Amino acid sequence: KTSGGQGYKFLGIDQCAPPCPNMYFKSDELEFAKSFIGTVSIFCLCATLFTFLTFLIDVRRFRYPERPIIYYSVCYSIVSLMYFIGFLLGDSTACNKADEKLELGDTVVLGSQNKACTVLFMLLYFFTMAGTVWWVILTITWFLAAGRKWSCEAIEQKAVWFHAVAWGTPGFLTVMLLALNKVEGDNISGVCFVGLYDLDASRYFVLLPLCLCVFVGLSLLLAGIISLNHVRQVIQHDGRNQEKLKKFMIRIGVFSGLYLVPLVTLLGCYVYEQVNRITWEITWVSDHCRQYHIPCPYQVKAITWIMSLFTFNVENVSWKYTCHGCKS
């Protein structure tokens, strides 16, 4: 239960929220997950800051089509910083403290009433989406350079449009989520995000945008590589230029692969969660319905009854088969 007036809703019940700590993990599993996230966030922060500081040393070195690398390095440095802050904060931001007077336990934050949680959500979601969009813009600039033979100056003239899309689209989505009150605390990482308990929000505001970005970026990468391969065949007698082009193709392949592998893995996790989340919730409620004094789910009772009936029939058949062979 949660205090009234906050607009909380969980599993279709008003004024309810998920318990804190996490519903699905044991204490030792939670500690391992938190330590893992905190460690990885430090490595990610160091790597992205190194890229950005390298850019500051010599700004002219990173021109288009490579310039978007700098922008999404900045985006992911802020993302990793948010996770590191969440690691330091623990559950203090993502969860509401228990209130013994009102007989309320620790619950996960749902909605934008908690200011600290809302700020973490805004920064994390905005820069996560912006980083992905900047990767798509990187594939666009690479395609323009490799497939359309655009010069650096010609691509740079479109920089205003790139910035408008890269910052405007995540900003619009972030404002929409705030208006819909879809902020949710993550009691594993300590941050706040969207779609952690709301499947529809996860599907339309996280999974769908990421899938679109992967599809567009991968299509442009393949088109650019095909164009580069065609150029390589045309200049096959020019060994020097062919070697430069070969190195350029390898850089594109390695860089896109290093980005795509974790992103596709993340999408796989989101899809897996979309398929299994309802089962997880029903199972959890079935295991804890008496502890929290809530109605036990009908689906689990029906499944349990069917399974017990099936087991009885199997045992009955087995018993008949055994007795059929008896001489008596």
From TrEMBL:
It is found in: Apical cell membrane; Cell surface; Cytoplasmic vesicle membrane. It holds the Pfam family Frizzled. Signal peptide: none annotated. Keywords: Cell membrane, Cytoplasmic vesicle, Developmental protein, G-protein coupled receptor, Glycoprotein, Membrane, Receptor, Transducer, Transmembrane, Transmembrane helix, Wnt signaling pathway. The chain crosses the membrane at residues 36-57, 69-89, 119-147, 159-180, 204-228, 248-268. Residues 30-264 form the G-protein coupled receptors family 2 profile domain. One of its GO terms (biological process) is Wnt signaling pathway. PROSITE patterns: G_PROTEIN_RECEP_F2_4. It is a multi-pass membrane protein. InterPro entries: Frizzled/SFRP, Frizzled/Smoothened_7TM, FZD6_7TM, GPCR_2-like_7TM. One of its GO terms (cellular component) is cell surface. GO terms for molecular function: G protein-coupled receptor activity. Belongs to the G-protein coupled receptor Fz/Smo family. This is Frizzled-6.
